[in-house]
Sequence to fold (952 residues):
Amino acid sequence: MNINYLAATMVLALTGAFLPVINRLFRISGIQGALISSIGYIVSLFLVLISGEGRSVLKGFFTTDPVSILVGALVLVSSWMVMLVIYWITEKDKFVNELISALMISTAGALLLISADNFISLIIAMELMTMPTYLMVLFAFDDKSFEAGVKYFFNGALAVGLMLFGISLLYGMTGSFEFSALVKNLFADPLVALAAVFIFAGFGFKITAFPFHFWGPDVYDGTCPGVAALLTGISKSAAFIGLMRVVYEAIPVIAGHFPLILAIIAALTMTVGNLLALAQKRVSRILAYSSVAHAGYTLVAFAALSVPLSATGIIYHSVAYVFMKTAAFLCFAVFLFVWGARTMDDYKGLGKREPLLAALFLIFLLSLAGVPPMAGFISKVFVFTAAVDAGMTWLALVGLLNSAFSVAYYIWIAKQMYLEEPTLERPINDSPNKNWILLPLAVMAILLIIFGVWINPVVDASAVYAAKVGF
Amino acid sequence: MVLLSMILLPVLVAPFAWIGEKVNRDFPKYLSLAVGIFLAFCTAYLIVKYPGNGFAFEEFYRIYPPFDFNLHLAVDGISLVLIAIVAFLAITVTLSSWHVERPGAYFFLILIFLGPMVGVFVSLNLIWFFIFWEFTLVPMFFHIGIWGAENRIYAAMKFFIYTHLASIFLLLGIIILYLSTHTFEFGKLLNIHLDPSVAKLVWILMFIGFAVKMPVVPFHTWLPDAHVQAPSPISVFLAGLLLKMGAYGLLRWEIFLFPQTSKFFAPLMAFIAVLTIFYAGFRALAEDHIKRMVAYSSINHMGFVLLGLSALTAAGISAAVYEMVGHALVISLLFMIAGYVHHKTHTWYISELGGIMKKIPGLMTMFVIGVLAAVGLPGTAGFVGELTVMLAAFDYYGWIMVIVPLASALGAGFFMWMLQRAVFGPLREEFKNLATLKELPLVENIPLAMYIAAFIIVGVVPAIVFNLYNPVINTFAQLFQ
Fold:
């Protein structure tokens, strides 16, 4: 791992750790807290961006390659924007600094997870990413969030348990945790397949793949939407990259048997996600099930793992997804805070009430739906191109049809916002500095459009990665 | 830079329409008019400087060469004709929307629609063609959904989902084509020999995408809803531009690229075309809703376009492109007037109209001229288009195409019957003292006069259109030998 990248993680985690302490000592206001954390984010982002050069440490545990730099930087940007929105929404809550602290530590875990190339460091990074979120889910302190928290905790514990079991099987066979050692010593064996199933199940919980998706919508709906933005956007994207490293760097021997299983799981995940999303009345649940569907699209790329384009597909979809999903939940959070809008009926006419915010929300929804020129379109193109290239045209067709039907509920939200007459009369929290909060969301929208047209950074990074894992 | 600026400028100035509304309510429409005039000047410049054959004004913006993901723009005669329609309709639609409600958002959407629209016709890179193609849906969705008639929300949702679903097949075709050829560039694709079975698969997938947009039977059901519910100026965009995208895509990206496969599927295309012509003709005959009737006559004309394309000869394709021009001018006029009739009489139904010629002779005279052009009166664009298409079809398919003139007679039938019931005859009692039933203000007459002037000029001197693209089509037609 590059020393700068490690420093970035440290800076972020330590800023997060000291934020509550600073608050106890000096009683900082919301805006001061946001400034302090922003400094942490900026320094960390700078360090991640320069981590192409410099000394290498912790070899065999973490690796720093273009993928971790690219996705790391984007994860940091999204997490920063989540932080700003959470501060704005929960400014008056006295525990907001603790919440931000957990957010930053969890993001540091995500940064480590996307660069882990050893099962020990993978588990540690994943737990570092997950542990703070157990706390965050409970933040709202109401019945729903308790239920969500308990559900989330047990599912998370189960996931780690399954994963550890799989890892121990691999360790028993090879005596090593390192990806580079595993890839040399493993051969196609039923036991390896069993281990892969357990590891995949562990990741399946994290990325809400069918049939491990049940907890997802309940938790995303039950907790406060800022936290849901972290869970469904950032944690999931990091988990995609982590799973990609496991599949391509540690156990590529499964490529013989797994693609069909993965393809079926992918098809089921996106179909179930989209069908259930169509049936929802609450916007947070629509976004949650759409996140399940997007896990399915990414799994399409995993199913195509025999071709180099699949790496591009996974990375591109993670990049696009981290922005669009996080930002969509943040828009929902702002609508919830200002207007108390939860259900589809509440969203009627919000386009007239909040033209700019609704326009931004629309951009994220269209990107999720895969309408050009947003990044969500081009990432889907890569995913489905990979599937066709791997000889799974049927899967690409299923995916594209799913994508077409998913438009129905995204455009339904747009319809409620713009084409219907307003039902909500006055905002429940009218903040004078409302327009400031649009700035982070606008940044994400612009980045989303830039990545939708200028594909070079992502494709170059994934080309380097594909060469590294030996395509 | 001309082509790029034609795509980017409308999109970049669009936010000013939205912001400008707060300063001055009139600003957005003047901005839109200025952009329309800008497009017209650019097109005029391109037409004057066009060397006569082949692609010209090439612009190449490198983005990611290994995947051929580059913005490659160029025009040939066919694209020139179509961007001339874009510029023309941009001006007329702006004038027709002079008194629209919420002008800021309305013209914002028009402007972000125009840029990608030009992009569709000038892009020589298939993936960029698709990006422009797909983006045009978004502004249209809001136009129909916000400014449309009673049932607008249903129509907007149906329009978006239906056409997006069709684009998915187009995208899958593009992906398979890319994986078999590793290029998106028109020039490179032209020289690649594709395996026939792959070519057939790609052809069918892409054809579904284009056929829905055109639209042809049985993929047409979104169109009557969308056209009827859309505000009239937006119906003009739908009929004049969106439908042309489908026909243009079919021509550029299927017929030119896969001449042999197209030849294999030509009877299918001809069958669908004839089916469309008759089905839409009979539906129009049975229709009481005046705008829906015009919508079916629009489908009927697109059937002629497909018939011309299916002939796969220089004459047939050239006739089809001419018919596209004629359709854009004539049907636009009819949609506008159908909208005004509803606006003035508060009814959509032919059976509830009657004798309105007596109250609004000016507007109805234009309506009659438009109907005559649609029926194919010599001296108008409709005549030249239908005649050349039929000649080309006879030439290629032989005597079986004798049935097509019958459909033309059918078209004359439903239009004349409509005129007789709705426009002529005794004036109905309830219209005698209707205050809203009066002539249009001048600014709304201008676009109507422009359509009439345009289709008469093009009809009397068809050479000004044919000469632009005939050399191009002749060059490509050698592929079919």
User: Anything to note?
Assistant: Residues 29 and 107 of chain B are 7 Å apart (CA to CA). DSSP finds 20 helices and two strands in chain B.
